[in-house]
Design brief:
heterodimer, A: about 425 residues, alpha+beta, five-stranded antiparallel β-sheet, B: about 140 residues, mainly alpha, 2 domains, about 75% helix
């Protein structure tokens, strides 16, 4: 805390000095008399006031919230010294917003005052709320004590999880029961084919209509329902951000929605945050894995790094051989693009949701960026074509203008005609 | 004298309109000068005039302090208003005492002149003390 005197005290002292010197020089006692009230006020201000002292604490009603929610908070201010007029500036940031207008109140000696307010959670992430800034003035306003009060609290804001009605089906599944209709043949519900009766086949599987037509016993073959491994691959090397919203926001929201939907289908989901810092969660199923993934997602951040990273930095058990790797990338950094091409070369079933950075570029009103923008778009088209030549669907997601489901549908349309990736 | 008063009023109005405190001391100086310079009897006694000057200055500075938009809760203004009125009221007898002392029939001597000079030096010392506090050492005077 910093204590400072009001500038007007100096002015009064200077005025009194001038008046006293003039009284002395001109032999006019009236001037000295005029100086007396100002000297008195300075003297009262300097000597009369007890020292100011403030103490306080900032509390949040809860430590976790969803994006877009309001969280209640309380600042308690206690006067340890002289009574004071307190101006409280509530803690506000771009992502945790509250009323920026300070609150003024009178705080008698030894008493405490509680100010309740609400913080609007603007974006997912781990946010620090506080400290509040406080300014206290004594009764005459002669001295002001200014500083931070109440420390800082951590608020974990979770992204809102959208519901997805359709999901990209993995080409290969695990030999574990699930909700995904496998391409393989076995026992299940979905009809796959007919084949002649063999040793060990159950009588109930005989297709009597086909048997009577061909005069040889035929049995139905089904697609079994299996679960799959899905790896959500977040490219956090770079992002395009404009007006506090960027491609990373979209990637995190999409990853949360995809993880929720795949885990609801009893699939195992892994998360790789591949960027300046490398974070991962190994594949697992269930509700707890969803909480783990969302906790890991809100800590995602784009950190500048010049280190060249590739998929060899990832532990091998993180990428099961039969997993669907679903990349969420703005395709801006060559390291992230290189890692995706590497995964494809290793035979992984890969699909890329390209979070278009174009939606986050500022409007070029003068038109001076038209040509470089066109060239940049052409280069991105070439990159997309390169992926598609390798059998990797690249669906462009114009967040927030289009929905994620549109991008998923685009991937599914591509995959209807694409062949599975060669086995490693 | 009227022109001086008008100029002082103009300076004060300018300070309040522009939310700048710098014209206020000049306005006070001008008001002090138009009171002290003319010889002879005055309509208002010097202690009352001095106290009124302080009240004018305090209200002017307070007005500027309140320019910052704030949500003010009840009971915030009363303590400062009472403190200003109390100091202004206390200044009247203090100034009257100073006036009586100044008008006492005491022959001018080097000792009295030295006492006057010491008062001036004391004022300068107060200024220096304030400057030290303003530098932000965090301890009250």
């Amino acid at each position: 805390m910093t204590l400072s005197a009001s500038p007007r005290l100096q002015t009064y002292a200077a005025l009194a000095t001038v008046a006293l010197v003039a009284a002395l020089a001109a032999g006019r006692p009236e001037l000295a008399v005029l100086a007396v009230p100002f000297v008195l006020l300075v003297a009262v201000g300097l000597a009369g006031a007890a020292p100011l002292a403030l103490d306080g604490v900032l509390r949040l009603e809860r430590e976790r919230a969803l994006e877009g929610e309001h969280v209640g908070a309380t600042v308690t201010v206690q006067a340890g010294g002289a009574p004071a007029r307190v101006e409280l500036h509530l803690p506000t940031t771009a992502r945790l917003q509250t009323d920026p207008i300070p609150i003024a109140f009178w705080l008698p000696r030894g008493e405490r005052h509680e100010v309740r307010f609400e913080l609007a959670v603007g974006r997912w992430g781990v946010h620090g709320a506080g400290p509040a800034v406080v300014r206290a003035r004594d009764r005459l306003g002669a001295f002001a004590l200014e500083g931070r009060l109440g420390g800082s609290c951590e608020l974990r804001a979770y992204p809102s999880v959208g519901r997805l009605h359709r999901l990209i089906a993995p080409l290969r599944t695990r030999p574990v029961l699930g909700s995904q209709v496998s391409r393989e043949r076995g026992e299940g519900i979905e009809f796959a084919d007919l084949r002649p009766l063999g040793p060990g086949d159950r009588v109930r599987r005989i297709n009597w209509r086909a048997t009577s037509r061909r005069r040889v016993p035929y049995v139905n073959v089904q697609h079994p329902e299996r679960s799959a491994d899905v790896v959500l691959f977040l490219d956090t090397f770079a992002e395009a951000e404009h007006a506090e919203e960027g491609t990373l926001d979209a990637a995190v929201q999409a990853a949360a929605a995809l993880a929720s939907a795949y885990l609801a289908r009893r699939d195992r989901v892994a998360l790789v945050s591949f960027g300046g810092t490398l974070n991962w969660l190994t594949a697992s199923a269930g509700t707890r894995q969803l909480y783990r993934i969302v906790d890991a997602l809100i800590a995602s951040d784009v950190r500048v790094s010049y280190a060249w990273k590739d998929v060899t930095h990832l532990p091998p058990r993180l990428l099961p051989a039969r997993a669907l790797v679903l990349a969420l990338s703005p395709l801006l950094d060559p390291r992230g693009i290189g890692a995706l091409l590497d995964l494809r070369a290793r035979g992984y079933d890969l699909a890329v949701v390209e979070i278009s950075p174009l939606a986050h570029t500022p409007a070029d009103e003068a038109g001076s960026h038209r040509l470089p923008l066109r060239l940049w778009r052409l280069r991105r088209d070439t990159l997309r074509a390169r992926f598609e030549t390798l059998g990797v669907p690249v669906a462009r997601w114009e967040h927030p203008h289009t929905s994620l489901e549109l991008a998923i549908e685009e991937v599914m349309t591509f995959r209807r005609h694409a062949r599975p990736a060669p086995q490693p | 004298m009227l022109a001086g008063a008008a100029a002082a009023t103009l300076l004060l109005s300018l300070a309040l309109a522009a939310a700048r405190s710098s014209p206020i001391p000049f306005s006070l100086l001008l008001l002090g000068a138009i009171y002290a310079i003319p010889e002879g009897e005055r309509a208002i006694a010097a202690p009352i005039y001095g106290s009124a000057l302080l009240l004018t200055a305090e209200l002017g500075y307070w007005s500027l302090d309140e320019r910052v938009p704030q949500r003010v809760q009840a009971g915030v203004f009363t303590p400062r208003l009472l403190a200003i009125l109390a100091v202004s009221a206390a200044a009247i007898p203090a100034s009257a005492l100073a006036l009586i002392a100044a008008e006492a029939d005491v022959a001018r001597s080097p000792a009295i002149t030295a006492a006057g000079a010491a008062a001036v030096v004391a004022c300068v010392a107060v200024l220096a003390a304030l400057a030290r506090v303003r530098s932000g050492d965090g301890t009250p005077p």
